[in-house]
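Q: Make up one entry.
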Amino acid sequence: MPPLPRPVIAAWSAAVVVAFVPTWWMWEGWLMSDALRPLVEGVDLSGWGPEPIFEERYYVVTYGVVRTFDSFNPTPVLSPLVNDLCVVSNVAYGCALPAVLVLAGFLGCLRQGDPEAVARRVAWGLVVAAAVPTLAQDFALTILSPQWFVAMAGVWGRDQVCYLLAAALVLVASLRMPHRPGATSDGFGLRAAALLADYVIFCVALGLVVPLLYENHDFLDFAGFRGLLSHVEAGPLPVGTDLAVVALMFLYVWIPRGTTVGKRLVGLRVEGATPGKAALRALLFPVAVLWPEYGVLWLTADALWSFVDRNGQLLHDRLLGTSVRSPS
């Protein structure tokens, strides 16, 4: 492979730096909160305005402090989805995963046949990284209502500019990278659509099945369901309703041997999945729900592997010898 032009290397390097800047700002805020904490602990701040809140770095939702919980206006399925996306994005930003995504995309452009296709995947990931933090800005608004769109547009700021600029740099840099014979990883848009469909189907099924197994009939009320990553309490082993959630999630993926309802809707199928391999594949998401911080990192590593894999396979498919085929 001929050496890359210097402008291409410069553009990819700039994209990594720009994608890392929002994470640096977050780290800087954490360091400042730790530095200021000893100055305000034990000090009576009454009469000096609102008390500083230093727990933002854990993404604690202090919703009841600002307005009453009665004003919470959940949207069935969409509110849990937005909440889970915010949990994922908070872990991603704190671990600089957008910058890691750009770096993985650069490696993918070098190893796979179509650098422009790889760059488009990276760019879409950065656009999602820019959009997710703006989705849950006002819990009193119905998601997808006109007022919600206005509120979401009003909170776009410097972080979003950084991610969109990094996406533009990635797309421009890929145009001057040479094409070469090799596998091109397709079908990731379909896999994302299948994952979204499975999430919606599972949340609806969960709201119907769990009340039949337990006396907690309030589970049908989505006001108390904050999302799969927030519903199950962190702990060594799930019990009660949490165990039912994890078990249903496992069975939902394992019984059809990975070819879930969402995959069938978009025409995808899993090949090479014996019952044992299908059971191991089905453990991915229950583990992520039980331990969200580690689960998000594992699922991210699983997806990023596809950039450096010559056939574009996810890590769990490579380890288990399975594959996901698109309609073509």
Q: What stands out?
A: Residues 44-71, 216-223 have pLDDT under 50 and may be disordered. The CA atoms of residues 115 and 177 lie 7 Å apart. The longest strand covers residues 269-271.
